[in-house]
Amino acid sequence: MIHQAEYHSLTEEEQRQHRREIRDVVLRPLRHTGLLGKLWIAGLIIVILIGCYAYYLQLRYGLKVTAMRDYASWGLYISNFVFFVAISLVGALISSVLRLTNFDWYRPITRIAEIIAVSAIIFAGLIIIIDMGRPDRVLNLFTHGRIQSPIVWDVIVVSTYLVTSVLFLYMPLLPGIALCRDQLTEKPKWQRWIYKVLALGWKGNHGQWKIMKRSIAIICILIIPLAISIHTVTAWLFATTLRPGWDSTNFGPYFVAGAFQAGTACVIIAMYAFRKAYGLQKYLTEVHFNQMGKLLVFLCLIYAYFNLNEYLVPAYKMRGAEGKLLNDLFTGHYAPLYWSVQVFGMALPALLLLWKKARRPLPLAIIALFVVVAAWFKRFLIVTPIMLHPYTTIQNVPPNWAVYFPSWVELAIVAASLAGVLLIITVFSKFFPIISIWETLENEGIELEELDNPTKAAS
Amino acid sequence: MTYKLKYRISLLITALLLFLSITLLAQDSTQATIALSFSQTDTTKTVHAMLTSNGKPVAGPEIHLYVQSLYSLLPIGKVVATDTTGLATFDFPIDLPSQNGMLTIIAKLQKDEKYGSVETHAAMKWGVTTKTELTHWSDRSLSASREKAPMFLVVASILIIGIIWFTIIYVALQLLRIKKAGKMAKA
């Protein structure tokens, strides 16, 4: 990346060369997929196929193939749902909050954040349907749903957020699709047809830019309350239920803070992977990693604050069933997992990332990986131990129903959903530029018309 | 089949029959029953559980008294051992609620070494009839049916969903304007 002043100090030929270079770098992954890339896609497909077989078994034999029983009627699927909803919030944070607050460094990573948001929210919706056991009963939500029910609120916000996120991904992608339509002439006919249809006749004229930028500004504002709503409502699914550990007024902001933290860590990992795999070192620079590292520290500290509120206040009282639950988390069965999540997913990252060296691409990506894994297990800890500690015990059930360890069917389906998210992101990056070229170059002072007219620019 | 073998088989069958008869007789001799009887005054209600075996009172075993509730058995007082007349007497609460006033009272002898488990039950109209408060059942509330959702919630939901979806549709329509702008530029 070069700065505006540097770009304008270049000769016309050098400027042309620079634009051509950018296009080539960004379009390179779309032209060619290496052996490693093919193996990665094949591996993801295999995991998905195993998950499909497990889901077939669940459909055929019912939810008894899972480990969910009367106590843990919400298990791995719901934990995974909360995780997906959490990471989907990052689209709003990176693309919207940073855009509206006039930060410029975010520009090359917007698309990564947006595709993570879209793919995660798609699978959040799917995993809920999987958890229902009978997918045909989704219709009951529409025919018998009550507006008083938080589950209906969740269905409304998840579907609304999905549509908005797709728009938020698609709208700034139009110039990129047009570039693919004009440049990737060697691609099969069907692919070029898709580019042609999706590009919506983009010519990059003044009128089109104006409409697009205005629309993006509207979605930017719209998506912030929506993103906060989707995770707050997900938190309310728990908080409106009378159970120790969930009976908390802190739950909405606690979930939102955790979501921003987990989502940011996901974007960092994706940035590192794309940087390495697609050779985008020039556009996903150390500056971006440094900034994202600082953002992650900030979000870890905010999340730590909400964790203090969530655990320390009830722990001071240690009242009844809540006390039993907290004992189980602090010193009991779930203690190793609980403390690992708090230390490796929050405290240590916040501490380590205070050093600039830790905010370099590789160490930051490793730390972010810890944060994401811990975030996934955190959702498991939010759901499962609480299901096993109801206020009143459930009578006449076998003793082994009071413990929960997911069955292979659940593990396979959840693994497939995670692979599904990764596959959508990978396939997307093979069809469309993963770096928003116009947003990156606009920052460098390159005229949008020049960028949009590659034949003219290349001449 | 030799005579000796036949003799042994008949001996075995006889021994088996003898054992079965003794066992049955032995069981008969230790079979017990509980008979419930009830008495009441203006302020008290009393349950009497009489434990007998072969018509004779059994003294000593502990009797448990319960009332059948919706999902489980509600214990009434502490366990009471039968006296020399085979009688266990329980003070029965006078304020147990019941939808129609009927209570199923159960007396149990549990896993006794000699008599095993014995149970009997009887229905008595000893419950206090409860009346469901139905005065607000047709009101709009958070716990009501979908048709009776609180008006503020219905209005707020429609407003919020309406504003957001109006904006989404407006932005989606801008895509058509972008397409149109491209065509105009071409023309």
Termini separation of chain A comes to 22 Å
Q: Count the E strands of chain A.
A: 0
Strand content of chain A: under 5%
CATH third-tier fold name of the domain at 33-129 in chain B: Immunoglobulin-like
Helix count of chain A, per DSSP?
A: 20
* CATH-scheme architecture of chain A: Up-down Bundle
CATH classification, class level of the domain at 33-129 in chain B: Mainly Beta
Quick one: how many beta strands of chain B? 11
How big a fraction of the residues of chain B is strand? 25-35%
Gyration radius of chain A (Cα, Å) is: 23 Å
Coarse structural class of chain A: mainly alpha
Helix percentage range of chain A? over 70%
The helix-strand sequence of chain B is HEEEEEEEEEEEH
CATH topology of chain A, what is it called?
Formate dehydrogenase/DMSO reductase fold
Major beta-sheet overview of chain B:
5 strands, antiparallel
How confident overall, as mean pLDDT of chain B? 87
Tertiary shape of chain B = elongated
The top-level CATH class of chain A is: Mainly Alpha
Q: Give the N-to-C terminal Cα separation of chain B.
A: 114 Å
| CATH-defined superfamily of the domain at 33-129 in chain B | Immunoglobulins
In short:
Chain A has 459 residues and is mainly α.
Topology, element by element:
The complex is a heterodimer of chains A (459) and B (187).
Chain A: H1 4-9, H2 12-31, H3 35-61, H4 76-88, H5 90-100, H6 110-131, H7 138-144, H8 150-170, H9 174-183, H10 189-198, H11 206-239, H12 251-278, H13 286-317, H14 320-330, H15 335-352, H16 361-387, H17 408-431, H18 437-442, H19 448-452, H20 454-458
Chain B: H1 3-30, E1 32-40, E2 45-53, E3 56-57, E4 62-68, E5 73-75, E6 80-81, E7 87-92, E8 97-98, E9 103-112, E10 116-124, E11 128-129, H2 151-186
Parallel strand pairs in B: 8-11
Antiparallel strand pairs in B: 1-2, 2-3, 2-7, 4-5, 4-6, 4-9, 9-10
